[in-house]
């Protein structure tokens, strides 16, 4: 078997379980609910700041299950039948609270960053090779301890507070309140028109432990917790958020930000800003270095001069059925894995190498077969001059050799995508059957998401993109080690589990 190390360093970017069969969505009794879905138009802010009511209401963009009731008692072809609920759930047919949310300061036609009608931001070439879909994440906040707080104390995860902070946070991150549009040559662009971000409030008839005790990312989890609108053809909503109140008193924040807009570094920068504003900081202090929106920093050279053939790195496989599991890497297992690696190996490289080996053994790859490891690498600090840390966009490139990504490599990738385009465009981002794609969130501030009621207990993708994809993440409690979310074909799971937890196999 020939191993082709496509990458070995960390990446900025961005998971079906025992939950009840019904999820009911309801308006919250306090604060007062927003108007019904059918009465909420999309708000378009142009030079005059007027509302155009000719556009469809948000309810027309949401599937009926999201507007009324999300039902999950049907078998899923990918994950099998869902487990039975622990207790009979209550079915309620109330609608969720949903609203259109332009950035604060732009409601009255303030020009600000984005209110000049249709400021278009072109996508960089690196953004041609990312999934043209929203990245769904879930943040689970357990119920606060009962401490007999005063009657005037603000409610846990008060939606009005979150909405007000979100509107302010969107000002420096104004592309997130825009729409995907089409520019010259049919290329997608970001229309920064301050139309809105989608914000929803829902109530669910199950407890957090029903989902997050043995978490498995799946389409069902995404449907329950993350708003959904079509991700492909423009115009398309760029950012969506949903606060779901659970029966146990806990809360799940679901986020869906379009991947063609930002990578993980930028996404977590935005979440940090939003949460800090919610805690009372002004936007400038909450944001820190302001987002850099200049996509020309990653444009192709003139004329383009790719030095390498990057096609094998940017190739896709066929979609396959898969299930997702969370594999814990305890400090003891991590030490054992590292002891079998070269001295000085990083945690990420050791865990990824161990994951890759276990996958190859579980799939029974022939000794003469070729397998590739694909890892996106953050290129902000690799360019000359470096990109600012606060660059808002996708600043990732796929490595095709260990420690090879430098300025020359990144410029070659950008030029290659300018000349050839993305070979996998129009097909799902799925690894070939012999390959592994790994995303690292190690070192990411994913748990720095305190809106004023404490940090989340668990953060993860709501759904994985396909078989052979993995996320390597730090646990909320760093003393507990590393968590690996891995999506794999069901037939290989038993063997993979055995090899993963016994490095001697």
UniProtKB/TrEMBL annotation:
Domain of life: Eukaryota
Amino acid composition bias (Low complexity), ranges on this chain: 56-67
Region (Disordered): 45-112
Any one Gene Ontology molecular-function term assigned to this protein's record: acyltransferase activity, transferring groups other than amino-acyl groups
InterPro entries, per the entry: CAT-like_dom_sf (IPR023213), Plant_Fungal_Acyltransferase (IPR050317)
Keyword annotations of the record: Acyltransferase, Transferase
Similarity comment text for this entry: Belongs to the plant acyltransferase family.
UniProt-recorded name of the protein: Uncharacterized protein
Organism: Digitaria exilis
